[in-house]
């Protein structure tokens, strides 16, 4: 039995990001085990976790909230990759590849999040209950 989130392309791609981050951080200094290494790994796992949680949301608002958190987690990963590159833990080429993947996932999450918003009734400016 597969859960609905496993069918989402953005979730599948977020799994790839986790693998990329774990492989990239495996070469970080041992001193960074509880610093950038841990932060990057947790943030990348949070992306897929929040997508999965969002797919089971009881309401569109709940779903949207989890997708927004996953989007923020992607931003957090990118933010942490930049100083990792500045500190020479990552090569610039690695950052560029990861940034491209992150940008793609951010666009997909943005689209997924938009799909959870209810249409607005133009006369009342309130969500139309479906």
Task: Name its key features.
4 helices, 68% helix, elongated, 3% strand, two-stranded antiparallel ribbon, 2 strands, mainly alpha
Overview of this protein structure:
The protein is mostly helical and 130 residues long. The chain has a single domain, classed as 23S rRNA-intervening sequence (de novo design (two linked rop proteins), Up-down Bundle). The protein is 68% helix and 3% strand. The chain has a two-stranded antiparallel sheet with strand order 1-2. β1 and β2 form a beta hairpin. α1 packs antiparallel against α2 and α2 packs antiparallel against α3. The protein is elongated, with a radius of gyration of 17 Å. The mean pLDDT is 89.
Distance between the termini: 29 Å
Shape verdict: elongated
Strand order within the widest beta sheet = 1-2
Look at the structure and name the CATH superfamily. 23S rRNA-intervening sequence
- Low-confidence stretches are none
Radius of gyration: 17 Å
Assigned CATH class? Mainly Alpha
């Amino acid at each position: 039995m597969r859960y609905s989130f496993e069918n989402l392309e953005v979730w599948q791609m977020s799994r790839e990001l986790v693998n990329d981050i774990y492989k990239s951080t495996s070469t970080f200094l041992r001193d960074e085990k509880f610093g950038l290494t841990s932060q990057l790994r947790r943030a990348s796992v949070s992306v897929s976790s929040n997508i999965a949680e969002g797919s089971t949301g009881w309401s569109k608002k709940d779903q949207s909230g989890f997708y927004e958190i996953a989007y923020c987690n992607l931003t957090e990963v990118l933010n942490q990759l930049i100083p990792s590159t500045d500190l020479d833990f990552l090569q610039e080429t690695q950052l560029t590849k990861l940034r491209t993947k992150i940008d793609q996932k951010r666009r997909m999450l943005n689209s997924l999040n938009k799909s959870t918003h209810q249409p607005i009734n133009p006369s009342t400016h309130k969500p139309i209950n479906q």
